[in-house]
Design a protein that fits this description.
About 35% of the residues lie in helices and about 15% in strands. It is α/β, with parallel strands linked by helices. Strands 1-8-7-6-5-4-3-2 form an 8-stranded parallel β-sheet. Strand 6, helix 5 and strand 7 form a beta-alpha-beta unit. The protein is globular, with a radius of gyration of 17 Å. It binds D-xylitol-5-phosphate and zinc ion. The site of D-xylitol-5-phosphate (DX5) has 21 residues, from strand 2, strand 8 and helix 7.
Length: about 250
């Protein structure tokens, strides 16, 4: 199952409720909330009050991606505000096992996130604990960056590990997901697709969500039918290079 999770970071905050609702009407089934503290990443965004406001106007799960130091201090507030999923960065958590249990103890689905420079094997011990693994395909901090192709092999590796260990976590990807990259991440095994600028940057979130979801579902269908990227002509990256799996 493929799910689209628009990142509200790129929405017009003056009309957040309406834009988020339009994206959901276009086929999004999760709303991705990027929380930044100006320490873990060089940017500051939003906190629990915005999650509480979104909770009132939207029924879909709120996926809170915490790009913050010492997330344990804020997990209760995000849970109280109405977060459904909470993910924390492997790089930010000294006691990652404890933090993931804390999220679950507050009634939320725990997720773990890895930056582009962090290998998948750092997650070996916690994979049985998580509802989702979020693979960053840009360095976190800003919307509108270019997709980093090496994230494809991490998605594929996670998919293989899940199968060989009989686990059930979902694989989410975040950063640089547009029409020219979505097919490759789906073929690599990503199931939850975070997209900010592709949905909100030029207005029309309903239509943008519908089109991106269609591209993702077409790619998933080809994947199931065993049609390789080479047969379909591959997908060009921003720099014109193919984003084929290594
Ligand atoms: C980056 C955030 C992403 C980002 C996605 O730190 O976690 O969710 O906003 O934006 P796009 O889709 O524009 O790369
Ligand atoms: Zn994010």
């Amino acid at each position: 199952m493929i799910e689209l999770a628009p990142s509200i970071l790129s929405a017009d905050f003056a009309r957040l409720g309406a834009d988020a609702q339009a994206a959901v009407e276009g086929g999004a089934s999760v709303l991705h909330v990027d929380v930044m503290d100006g320490h873990f990443v060089p940017n500051i965004t939003i906190g629990p009050p915005v999650v509480a406001s979104l909770r009132k106007v939207s029924k879909v799960p709120l996926d809170c991606h915490l790009m913050i130091e010492q997330p344990d201090e804020f997990i209760p507030a995000f849970a109280e505000a109405g977060a459904d999923w909470i993910s924390v960065h492997q790089e930010a958590c000294i006691h990652l096992d404890r933090t993931l249990h804390l999220i679950a103890a507050h009634g939320c689905k725990p997720g773990v996130v890895i930056n582009p420079a962090t290998p998948v094997n750092t997650l070996h011990e916690v994979l049985p604990l998580v509802h989702h693994v979020l693979v960053m395909s840009v360095n976190p901090g800003f919307g509108g960056q270019t997709f980093i192709p090496s994230s494809l092999k991490k998605i594929k590796l996670l998919s293989e590990i899940r199968k060989s260990r009989g686990l059930e976590f979902r694989i989410e990807v975040d950063g640089g997901i547009h029409h020219n990259t979505v097919a490759e991440v789906v073929r690599a095994g990503a199931q939850i697709l975070v997209a900010g600028s592709a949905i909100f940057e030029h207005g029309a979130p309903r239509e943008n969500a519908r089109k991106l979801m269609k591209s993702a579902l077409d790619a998933a269908k080809q994947f199931v039918q065993g049609i390789s990227p080479a047969v379909t002509g591959g997908v060009a990256g921003d720099d014109g290079n193919s984003l084929s799996l290594p």
